Amino acid sequence: MEVSLTTWLLTVAGLCVLVAADFFIGRKPHDVSIREAGIWTAVWVILACLFGVGLLVVAGGGPAGEFFAGYITEKSLSVDNLFVFVLIMSKFAVPSQYQQRVLMVGVLVALVLRAAFIAAGAAIISAFSWVFYIFGAFLIYTAWKLIQDARKGGHDEEYEENKLLKTIEHRFGVADRYHGTKLWIEENGKRVMTPMLVVMLAIGSTDVLFALDSIPAIYGLTQDPYIVFTANAFALMGLRQLYFLIGGLLKRLVHLSYGLSVILGFIGVKLILHALHESGVHVPEIGIPFSLGFIVLVLAVTTVTSLVAARKQEQEQEQEEEREREG
């Protein structure tokens, strides 16, 4: 899809307006209700769908299908990332009224970092077609690792600060408590970071690790940087509201990691087949309609089996508690 510089600039400007509006609406620290989170989650999903329909009208079914496949994949991976966000919030004991501000700035940092990853990915792909072999192999490895982590109960582990974050904390110092939404304060004559800034950096830097699998995954569905960027942007921008909407339901999605591993493995195979095809080997390629249908089907099955398994665990726990009371 040929995208002019004007279209790029208008798209980025439009996304900046949406981000600014989101920041303005959530500028006052407060506890986010389920109703508020639900309304704004729906708004972001509707905006993404309208953008996809716009692509359908302007560019045809191919780019629109690639956008929706990429958007759904990135959104699904983002839901899995929310598990880590919950751990980070718990680790730093973020007051509930400040959590939306933390997520807002963290997601904004993530969006900027992903734009850099997307640009780098586009440059590498245009220069070296064999990179698809590496992307495909990496996604298959990531899928296998997801299954291993799920079996070990990976989401039950505590969040550990990375070395970069620890270095920054040591260099600048951290206040011993939150000071509203302030990021820096004067303490004993020295300018130090507040825990608010630290947790924002934790979420932003953690997303860099998430991008290592999400960016190759979406490049497995489309090689168009414009679609890759917009799909990522729409998936990330609704993440803050989604955190509050399904935060209590995350533990019920017990099979999500298995579903995502199937999707990443599928895209990894798709990338390798594409690389072989580009190398002149006659192999079947997987089209976008099949990819989109497969991703939706896997997510639907994963959600249903997760909720059934979670309900069964709750019933077993209730029966166990009842036996203990009777005993």
Secondary structure blueprint with pairings:
Blueprint: H1 5-25, H2 34-59, H3 61-91, H4 99-127, H5 131-151, H6 163-172, E1 184-187, E2 190-193, H7 195-219, H8 225-237, H9 239-246, H10 256-278, H11 288-326
Antiparallel strand pairs: 1-2
Explain this structure to me?
The chain is mainly α and 327 residues long. It is built from 11 helices and 2 strands. It has helices at 5-25, 34-59, 61-91, 99-127, 131-151, 163-172, 195-219, 225-237, 239-246, 256-278, 288-326; strands spanning 184-187, 190-193. The chain has a two-stranded antiparallel sheet. A hairpin with a 2-residue loop joins strand 1 (184-187) and strand 2. Helix 3 (61-91) crosses helix 10, helix 4 packs parallel to helix 7 (195-219) and helix 4 crosses helix 9 (239-246). The longest helix is centred in the last third of the chain and has 39 residues, at 288-326.
**Outline:** globular
Largest sheet: 2 strands, antiparallel
Proportion of beta-strand residues: under 5%
Q: Residue ranges: pLDDT <50 for 5 or more in a row? A: none
Q: What do the pLDDT scores average to?
A: 82
- The rounded distance between the terminal residues' Cα atoms is 69 Å
The whole-angstrom Rg is: 21 Å
Total helical segments: 11
In spatial order, strands of the major sheet run 1-2
* Count of individual beta strands: 2
DSSP helix fraction: over 70%
Computed structural class? mainly alpha
How would you spell out the order of helices and strands? HHHHHHEEHHHHH
Provide a compact summary of the structure.
Helices cover 75% and strands 2% of the residues. The chain is mainly alpha-helical. A hairpin with a 2-residue loop joins β1 and β2 (190-193).
